[in-house]
TrEMBL record:
This is Uncharacterized protein. It comes from the Bacteria.
Length: 154
């Protein structure tokens, strides 16, 4: 991962395919025209109408969720597509990890022991994205049961 992004089109493409790609988009800083600067802002949404981008949603390092008009953005510095485990924005990192844990539990509940290749690929991608440090004992035991099967899809 750690892919450099070259514009709003790239950001939109990554966010639109986030389930397949994993990861999130983090900037070294995002500055508005008013001069406000947000270090390690994580871009969560880019709104598009036709072929025009009109707003950007992001989460600041303090956990503040903001949606701003594209015209209000002065600089998006060094946006990168990163694994969740590599994020410097700890507030957003914790939020996304909780969501991924919830999604993983639901995934295991739905498949109930019927582990298809697509299921295994998705679980492997999520675990690679968030890291192997899973505090939930129930979820951790479910993952450890299928860990050997990951080798067959690698």
């Amino acid at each position: 991962m750690r892919i450099q992004i070259n514009g709003l089109r790239d950001i939109h493409a990554i966010l639109s395919n986030q389930r397949k790609l994993g990861g999130v988009i983090e900037t070294s800083f995002l500055r508005l025209r008013s001069g406000e600067e947000y270090p390690y802002a994580c871009i969560t949404h880019v709104d598009l109408l036709g072929s025009n981008y009109y707003s950007i949603g992001f989460v600041t390092n303090e956990g503040k969720k903001m949606i701003v008009n594209v015209n209000e953005v002065s600089v998006i510095s060094s946006p990168e597509h990163k694994k969740i485990s590599e994020l410097k924005n700890s507030v957003y990192k914790n939020l996304v990890i909780k969501e991924k844990f919830k999604y993983l539990k639901r995934l295991f509940d739905i498949h109930q022991g019927s582990y298809t290749i697509h299921f295994l690929k998705e679980v492997k991608m999520i675990i690679d994205d968030i890291g192997f440090d899973i505090p939930d004992p129930e979820l951790s035991s479910m993952i450890s049961k299928i860990k050997d099967q990951f080798k067959s899809i690698a």
